[in-house]
User: Which sequence fits this backbone?
């Protein structure tokens, strides 16, 4: 699976490189900073989910690829900002100095802003074969990364630090912070591929459960993982007094919940039959990963 994922990530990398060529002008530092984080060794999970959902729904890769690249830019911008001293204050990301350590806080903030703007520049200029579907996908992308999506989840997470929260609140914040753009990746893949409402709903249900399982695994790895393998410091959740599935449920129950949500994700793919084989295997890979 790892080698197959590398092949699929390479497709994304080539497209990202074309969308963000190096520039030799007075603002070249911002392009350098954008590329530094964008090509820092990410797994390309969200764009791969989008492309594979599209494939499962009978869509064409070239139709969804611009949205996949935009999603990766949005994800990367969020990581740059998450790492800032005012947020998680991390020095390492994917085994390399974080953007603000490399370029300074001001450039890092602007690099994140620039990636977000570039993402919407790409999708707003692309109509594809079905402009109406493309505009719907743009709306889904925007909402999932905004105040009722990723940013909203980040705010709830920050507001919850050092406080006791309910399990419902924990699931809510992670369904937005981590889960929202995982869900929209799959939903956009289905929408751009002209899937009917039943299939879009099934893709959404798959991604909703996968997002929770993925986050639980992240929480587990923050306690049990190897720093060299993860490429970032472990134990950061405890240092930041963050609420996680491990702190609320304990390690054993968190493992059980990860398996439960993984099963629910795979069950949601039943309607797709054999076409879902890759996503079923990917779900197992993600919820059993070591990094």
Assistant:
């Amino acid at each position: 699976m790892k080698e197959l994922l590398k092949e699929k990530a390479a497709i994304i990398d080539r497209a990202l490189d074309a969308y963000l060529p190096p520039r030799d002008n007075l603002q070249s530092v911002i392009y350098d900073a954008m590329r530094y984080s964008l090509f820092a060794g990410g797994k390309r999970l969200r764009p791969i989910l989008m492309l594979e959902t599209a494939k499962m729904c009978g869509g064409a890769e070239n139709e969804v690829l611009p949205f996949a690249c935009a999603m990766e830019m949005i994800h990367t911008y969020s990581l740059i900002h998450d790492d800032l001293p005012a947020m998680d204050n991390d020095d390492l990301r994917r085994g390399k100095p974080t953007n603000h350590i490399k370029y300074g806080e001001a450039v890092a903030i602007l690099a994140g802003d620039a990636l977000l703007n570039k993402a919407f520049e790409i999708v707003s200029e692309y109509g594809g074969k079905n402009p109406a579907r493309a505009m719907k996908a743009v709306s889904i992308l925007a909402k999932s990364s905004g105040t009722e999506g990723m940013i909203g989840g980040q705010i709830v997470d920050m507001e919850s630090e050092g406080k006791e929260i309910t399990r419902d609140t924990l699931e809510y914040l992670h369904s937005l912070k981590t889960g929202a753009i995982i869900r929209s990746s799959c939903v956009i893949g289905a929408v751009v591929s002209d899937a009917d409402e039943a299939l879009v709903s099934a893709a959404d249900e798959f991604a909703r459960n996968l997002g929770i399982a993925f986050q639980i695994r992240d929480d587990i790895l923050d306690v049990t993982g190897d720093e060299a393998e993860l490429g970032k410091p472990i134990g950061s959740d405890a240092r930041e007094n963050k609420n996680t599935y491990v702190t609320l449920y304990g390690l054993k129950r968190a493992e059980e919940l990860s398996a439960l949500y993984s099963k629910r994700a795979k069950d949601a793919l039943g309607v797709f039959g054999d076409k879902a084989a890759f996503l079923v295997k990917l779900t197992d890979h993600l919820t059993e990963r070591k990094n």
